[in-house]
Amino acid sequence: MIRSGQILACCILALLTLGVLMVNSADMSLDPSRAISFESIVLSRSSAYMVLAMIAMGAASWLPIRSWARRAGGAKGASKISECGGFDSTTLTMYGGGVLVMLAVVATVYMPVIGKEKNGSHRWLAIAVPGAGEVSVQPSEIVKWAMIVLVSWYAVRLARRSEGAMGRFFTGLIPALIGVGAVAGFIVLEDLGTGVLIAGVSGIILLAGGAKLWQLALLAPPALGALAAAVMTSEYRMKRMTAFLDPYADPEKTGFHMIQSMTAVANGEVFGRGLGHGLQKFGYLPEDRTDFLFAVICEELGIAGAGLVVFLYVTMLWAGMSIIRREKDAMLKLVGLGVLSTIGLQAAINLAVVTGLGPTKGIALPLLSSGGTGWILTAASVGLLLAMDRAQSRDERGVVEDVETIEMTPQPA
């Protein structure tokens, strides 16, 4: 019988393979010296990233994540909550330290020499790798996945120290949101989409970890106000909003990007122009290899290709949720939920932008849009779900991992 983990791995492989093909197709040039061939695709940088992503996923799938989760969360009631307002001082100190590390990682984009400015934004590090030239790394991508683990750890740690601690507004939820707000707010300075994504996924994890819905709803207006301020105080973000409302008001400037994207989607019709035969990628559609790769897919593969992409994402999320539902460890459940929420929300935002249902935003399509850091880290994160599936398979075969369970198991006379 095929396991959910096997279905999940097949979806990841299919998305990465399609990503390699479409990234190379989008990179086509009218210059004969840069002709696309089977050899050029196999030896391309995107193929190398795909191999690294699959290696990262495979390595993560063999990690002893259950033992790590038990040690990270600590035993239930292992430490006393301080008398000062019910705060768990140890957990708060460790959580605060983690937040500071996240902020330090994101701040590296402003460092001289390695910090790289592109299109007026500081989002990348330019690292020279022997034999590979200059490699771009996006620190916010690292933080995006690391925050899932940190917030999940915080929620489970509080729950194991005191029942219902996560649902306490001032001693449970507020400290968590301060940390999330600090990291997301700092990222929003340069990357609104990733900052909002981190905040949204963290909210889902906290809600699943014991926070009450009314508490998050109470804090929604200030959060939306901060988001509105981030948009209104930025000229280029305001232009994107006005272009979304009416792209044809300025079709040659602010509305150009959205118009070209929707043109590419419409030109694909049912079965598309054919792989490699798209036209918008030849100087018309900006960011065709990255944020707007789905438009190229629609133009060349049509509704059929777009449907395949959506099918792979839905199947991947379904397989991942089936793994999470069977998982016994609370922290792993939250980490898995965070991984799936990140991929799902990121894909939904990208598809909405490309099809004109949302304002233009620089957020990539997971496992498809060109990007080495994104592919590798996303695949590694999915590998954690595969590791859960492997652990569940051992449970079904009667292989006991938990030392405490072994000690409590009655021995035959």
Distance, first to last CA: 36 Å
Number of helices: 15
Largest sheet: 3 strands, antiparallel
* Number of β-strand runs: 3
Beta-strand residue fraction: under 5%
Sketch the topology as an H/E string, one letter per element. Answer: HHHHHEEEHHHHHHHHHH
Ranges with pLDDT <50 over ≥5 residues?
77-86, 400-413
Structural class: mainly alpha
Helix proportion: 55-70%
Q: Give the mean pLDDT.
A: 86
Walk me through the structure.
With 413 residues, the chain is mostly helical. It contains 15 helices and three strands. The chain has helices spanning 4-26, 38-42, 45-61, 65-73, 89-107, 139-161, 169-188, 192-208, 213-232, 235-245, 256-267, 293-326, 330-354, 372-396, 403-408; strands at residues 115-118, 121-129, 133-137. The chain has a three-stranded antiparallel beta sheet. Helix 1 packs antiparallel against helix 14 and helix 12 packs antiparallel against helix 13. The protein is globular and about 65 Å long. Mean pLDDT is 86; it is low at 77-86 and 400-413.
In short:
This protein is mainly alpha-helical.
Write the layout of secondary structure elements.
Elements: H1 4-26, H2 38-42, H3 45-61, H4 65-73, H5 89-107, E1 115-118, E2 121-129, E3 133-137, H6 139-161, H7 169-188, H8 192-208, H9 213-232, H10 235-245, H11 256-267, H12 293-326, H13 330-354, H14 372-396, H15 403-408
Antiparallel strand pairs: 1-2, 2-3
Helix pairs in contact: 1-3, 1-12, 1-14, 3-14, 5-6, 5-7, 6-7, 6-8, 6-13, 7-8, 8-9, 8-13, 11-12, 12-13, 12-14, 13-14
